[in-house]
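Folds abound. A case:
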Amino acid sequence: MDVLTQRSELTSVDREWAANYQQGDVLYYTRGSKEHGIEPRAYATVASIDAAANRLTVAKDDGKQVTYDPERLSGITAYREISRDFAEGDRIQFTAANRELGVSNRDLGAIERIDGTQIDVKMDGEKKRTVSFDAAQMRHFDHGYAVTSHSSQGLTTELVLVNMDTNVHPELINTRFAYVSVSRASEAARIYTNDAGTLGERLSADVTKTSAVDLQQIHDQPTKNQPTQTQEPPMTNSREHPLDDLRRQPPTEPMVSIPEIVRHEVEVDTRHYAPIEAALPNESSGYNWKRETGDIESYQHNQTGGWLHIDPQSQFYDRQVQPTTREAALEHAGHIPAHSVDDNTQMQSHNSSNNNDQGISL
């Protein structure tokens, strides 16, 4: 069977250039285009590429071909077709959400029956249910015997087998990856690696981001030529309690100075709000930070309820923690620039788009 795998290496900027596509790529159009006769949520296949003129020619499902400038058409996800062999009893994983089937991205199940292209899948979970689909139409699935550490968050199994390859990019092997991978096991975890000698050092890498406040603290430290002032250190456990708990405790003894509390709050705000301020430098007003999922920060608008999920590299994600385009994320959140509509229209747009979004789903 031919299934679709996302070309996740293409950033939103890469997708604006025809040279980055390949003949045979399958494109999914979130919003479509009235100008080119492409319906929303439609698929098309790349037929030819004119890199010099930056033009793509795609073949739609009805056989008609359309040529356009990819820089002027956003809301596109690129896939490749790959061949997979499936049999009854195989574990599979869905690679995109499907409302009709009631499945989310990265949901797991086992094939119960295959009849031609018709597949019945018994879904994992406490609630026993079976979904049926035509593999010629719904092609967003793959083998589910192994999952990435990122998509395994929230899952638990008795035995976990972890592949830790020290040859991958240094930022992929770190303390966070080690914790998420090993903590999925309820009974035992086995680690397989190509280099046991250096693995411990690689896994000790801390990926915590340095905030502007941290840099200022380093800058404020006295140098050898500056006199030092003796200050009473705060209690060693003061940072281990939520700030609200600290304020509720009776002030029988000095715990921590007001400047220290303010500095801590500013440090947290700076770290959590940095991704949205970098991705939307002029349009982040009104979004409040809600939670952190790995490197992804989630924000919700304080009036309209719209959600955005962004990582430090300004990559946007949907609520199933899958990379998405900036335009698709803003459209799903109902994000409309403040200067384009009045407050009431903006409120209605957000509410109509986000009734079903409650943040990232793991």
